[in-house]
Task: inverse folding
């Protein structure tokens, strides 16, 4: 038998070790302080492997030993801890007219948030320059920041670094995010489609979410979806899967900039709602001069006050959000659908109408086994999704961040 | 540190070994005769691991040593081989009115095929009984058969064992496939939704298909989809994901038995085509008395003869097949879409119209990077999908079939 080259042998061991390191970090992240024995039991790893890997993680400063904790049979054992407050990431969320930059700890606690000036088609490049400056300033002032995550509207072409379709503000299409940011800072940068970033945020930061089949349904300036199937984020060949906003709900319906007809986004995005509001007889005074988000929030405020016309309009929109939900059931069969971003701020009246549509149109076995909730993360905190992208990379590929080998 | 229980330690080692065994078998399956060094290099496994695992696989009779093969630097080394003709599986495909039972070798070569008498709503239970008898007969006569794979129409509720929706022939809904078949034979039985089975067949048996992002688009008595994303079959929480036939293409369209409105299946399944043919002024004489498949094939024959009305009707249907394709692009972004089952027999005229719709409606970057082809497996061979379900299990979980530990 020929021997393999040492490089291959090493690669093999490195791959397995990195996978085990990642599993240990994820266990500590999700379960808090744990003993080596508890980790070994949960992950079905040998005590020897745990001892070796945790020693290197402690040496590299990634995890720490805490005082004794109660083990099984009342034996005391040393606890291990991933100190989520010790490391930080920057999240940058791009949402056409709004760019937000936040600093987060690993648990998803937001330490600062910076809303950049409203972006117009003319100021896209100024905004890019501002992001460079601001991120560099943040990095210079806080050595604990170890990565930048960015969430960009889909369909985002991962390999190319460009957004394929932007319904308004065409200048965004010209931005190559990879070229602009991939090697721009002292820490690694990770880019993800925004709804997929949102799914990661729900998965990491919401303690009530335990599903391995999770869909984050972003209804905001765009309409998007991030779907986790059995623990794997569905990506597609180019990273352009789960683009629910461009799935047609009416093949004879409204044309969309993407080339398709009847795209869901044309019926229930913040922009579509803004159009509906503008078309009323002054339901929201001055709505024409508002941003999409402002117009939506003004509508939702009227709904809360009991305004009948406003509530009628909201129900109309909610039915379309519901049709999107029905498609999510049949295309992805998640066990939990989280509705987030601007439009989800409409709250209970929206959710009730969505559930009504789902009750009418979804197979009962699927409906019965699926939870639909509003996101527990506030819309301003949607930038948390961008942070979650970076944190996920840290948990999955620790050796990129620390010398743990 | 507390020691883990021996059971956990064992489980850990067993999991890793099974995974490596599986990877070695899959390598031999896809690449043919290989030396231990070639396998070690391709899989980044240590020579020691390869030696140990292949020794056990040889001992258990799963793989064999062949004569010397040419290694690197002209050194000779011993070849290893998975003899795909030595092991056999039974595939059973359920398609409402047609049930087929085939015997296959591991390479997907069909050794026998049995079309059961056309099933009506009244003969569903007789058919179940016949399957029991026929499979037992096949197993009694061929000791090399080591598993049964079954492909059933979706939405198939994997945990419960039932089909959730059947648009015609309601008796099928009462069949619990798990209860009927899971423990019925001397070999293990594996069940899968039919389009997902088709995706596995394309992935395993078609040498031209190398994509890790593959969609098999089944357009037959039902309309279904099996999607492989980065090598993982998308399942959903209950196994009811990728039910493209019940994704609405028109939320104000035709009602469907599933409760949804405008389901794709209502526009381009073999049954929908049959209805269209029946509604013509005798385009296909005697069509009302035909099966759906017969009516479709009669229509396609007329198309080939150049009949204008027939071609017009086909183009109309093909546009709907195309709308489904557009949804597949935006929901799953595969790099290869394979169109299969009865309707795909319409051939080039169908495919051309589907491509026309896709050219009109899909983002160019996605369109440019995605291949759409007709299945190379003939419709009768669609039962190969059922066989592929069993073969996939063998390749992924060899210890279920052989004592290799």
Result:
């Amino acid at each position: 038998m020929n021997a393999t080259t040492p490089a291959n042998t090493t690669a093999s061991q490195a791959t397995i070790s990195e996978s085990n390191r990642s599993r240990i970090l994820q266990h500590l992240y999700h379960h808090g302080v744990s003993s080596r024995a508890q980790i070994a039991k949960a992950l079905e790893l040998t005590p020897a492997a745990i001892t070796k890997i945790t020693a290197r993680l402690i040496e590299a400063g990634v995890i720490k030993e805490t005082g004794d904790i109660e083990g099984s049979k009342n034996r005391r054992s040393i606890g291990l801890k991933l100190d989520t407050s010790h490391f930080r990431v920057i999240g940058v969320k791009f949402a056409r007219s709004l760019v937000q930059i936040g600093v987060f700890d690993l648990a998803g606690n937001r330490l600062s948030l910076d809303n950049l000036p409203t972006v117009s088609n003319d100021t896209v490049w100024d905004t890019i320059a501002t992001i460079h400056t601001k991120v560099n300033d943040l990095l210079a002032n806080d050595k604990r920041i170890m990565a930048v995550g960015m969430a960009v509207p889909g369909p985002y072409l991962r390999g190319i670094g460009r957004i394929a379709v932007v319904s308004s503000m065409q200048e965004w299409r010209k931005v190559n995010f990879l070229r602009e940011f991939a090697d721009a800072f002292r820490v690694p940068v990770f880019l993800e489609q925004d709804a997929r970033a949102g799914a990661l945020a729900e998965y990491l930061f919401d303690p009530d979410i335990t599903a391995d089949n999770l869909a984050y349904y972003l209804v905001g300036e765009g309409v998007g979806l991030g779907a986790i199937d059995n623990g794997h984020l569905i990506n597609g060949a180019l990273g352009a899967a789960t683009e629910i906003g461009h799935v047609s709900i009416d093949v004879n319906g409204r044309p969309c900039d993407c080339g398709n007809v009847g795209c869901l986004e044309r019926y229930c995005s913040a922009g579509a709602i803004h159009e509906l509001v503008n078309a009323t007889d002054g339901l929201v005074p001055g709505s024409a001069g508002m941003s999409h988000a402002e117009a939506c929030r003004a509508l939702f405020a009227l709904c809360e006050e009991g305004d009948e016309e406003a509530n009628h309009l909201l129900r109309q929109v909610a039915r379309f959000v519901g049709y999107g939900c029905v498609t999510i059931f049949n295309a992805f069969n998640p066990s939990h659908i989280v509705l987030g971003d601007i439009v989800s701020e409409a709250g209970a009246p929206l959710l009730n109408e969505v559930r009504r549509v789902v009750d009418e149109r979804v197979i009962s076995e699927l409906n019965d086994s699926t939870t639909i909730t509003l996101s527990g993360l506030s819309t301003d905190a949607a930038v948390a999704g961008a942070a979650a992208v970076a944190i996920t990379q840290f948990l999955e590929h620790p050796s990129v961040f620390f010398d743990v080998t």
